[in-house]
């Protein structure tokens, strides 16, 4: 989390300027950061209030990060789901054509669906991560012995959030690659997919998403926790996490959008989709198409998300809603 200089997380003082900082080197007795599972207990918060603050902070963090990079995210999804060669010139042409044909807001098409997905997704992910950390005693043991627990708690949080919100991700992907008159809104997209393709279609691509969430969320949270929760480290965490599972992200997007892009062959399974992508487009321009976009948007989005989560959680835990009944269990 963000480690604030000056008053401790248990105190009532405001954070000092430039508060996003690397924690001290004394790992034998580190300060209790706002986002650690022990923070709620050490500050007198009940577990229910600690969970609520994590849930709300996660919602704000996810919405802020995704809205910031929405045009880049939409561009990446379009190239992931088409065989068009990905490069900087092609990206700029896509953004230019989208702007000229349908206006500036076209670049944020699907962002409402993204927010409808990312708010519960991010809330569940951050809040469940706090709970898994507590259950696995991530912050309770020696620094050297906590590495595997950090990775496992992050992976479990990723699996939990993906499972709870996957249909929303499916609808968002469809909206990102179709014309604006195909689906009126998120609810319309969900209804159309259900009626035209069946209920199971809402979970098409779920297997690669689940498989990808294990290394992605595990690596992201592990890297962030290990590197002491600084803004730039949040960016590095996201970059490592996304790179480790990127081919599965390609498969997920192609399976989700196969029915509207004219490639039903991508729905025959993970390995079949991986093989087809490799055969038609290769490794760099196929399985890792759009990865360079992650080098730009990934660190920005994840840095914003981690820093926003810690800051909002720190502020929430000092409001009367949480601070006036400290000590209750």
UniProtKB/TrEMBL annotation:
- Please provide the record's keywords in A-Z order: Membrane, Repeat, Transmembrane, Transport
Query: Which Gene Ontology BP terms does the record give?
Result: transmembrane transport
Topological category with respect to the lipid bilayer: Multi-pass membrane protein
Chain intervals with Low complexity compositional bias: 16-41
TM ranges are: none
The record, for Pfam families, names: Mito_carr
List the subcellular locations.
Answer: Membrane
Report the GO terms under cellular component.
membrane
- Family classification: Belongs to the mitochondrial carrier (TC 2.A.29) family.
Please identify the protein, giving its name as recorded.
Answer: ADP,ATP carrier protein
The record lists the organism as Macrostomum lignano
**Lineage, top ranks:** Eukaryota, Metazoa, Spiralia, Lophotrochozoa, Platyhelminthes
């Amino acid at each position: 989390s963000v480690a604030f200089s000056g008053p401790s997380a248990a105190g009532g003082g405001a954070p000092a300027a430039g508060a996003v900082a690397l924690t001290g080197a004394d790992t034998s007795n580190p300060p209790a950061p706002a986002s650690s599972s022990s923070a709620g207990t050490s500050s007198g918060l009940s577990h229910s209030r600690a969970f609520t603050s994590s849930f709300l902070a996660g919602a704000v963090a996810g919405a802020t990060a995704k809205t910031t990079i929405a045009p880049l995210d939409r561009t990446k999804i379009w190239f992931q789901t088409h065989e068009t060669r990905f490069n900087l010139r092609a990206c700029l042409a896509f953004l230019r054509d989208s702007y000229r044909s349908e206006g500036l807001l076209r670049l944020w098409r699907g962002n409402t669906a993204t927010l409808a997905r990312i708010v519960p997704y991010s809330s569940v992910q951050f809040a469940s991560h706090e709970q898994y950390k507590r259950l696995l005693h991530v912050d309770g043991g020696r620094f050297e012995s906590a590495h595997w627990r950090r990775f496992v708690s992050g992976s479990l949080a990723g699996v939990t959030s993906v499972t709870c919100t996957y249909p929303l991700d499916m609808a968002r992907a469809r909206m990102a690659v179709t014309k604006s008159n195909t689906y009126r809104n998120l609810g319309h997209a969900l209804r159309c997919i259900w009626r035209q393709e069946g209920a199971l279609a809402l979970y098409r691509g779920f297997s690669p998403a689940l498989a990808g969430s294990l290394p992605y969320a595990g690596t992201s949270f592990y890297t962030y926790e290990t590197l002491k929760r600084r803004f730039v480290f949040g960016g590095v965490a996201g970059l490592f996490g996304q790179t480790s599972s990127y081919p599965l992200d390609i498969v997920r997007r192609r399976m989700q959008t196969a029915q509207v892009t004219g490639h039903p062959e991508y729905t025959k399974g993970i390995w079949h989709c991986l093989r087809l992508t490799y055969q038609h487009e290769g490794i760099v321009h196929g399985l890792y198409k759009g990865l360079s976009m992650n080098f730009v948007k990934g660190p920005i989005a994840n840095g914003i998300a981690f820093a926003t989560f810690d800051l909002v959680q720190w502020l929430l835990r000092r409001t009367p809603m949480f601070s006036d009944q400290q000590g209750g269990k």
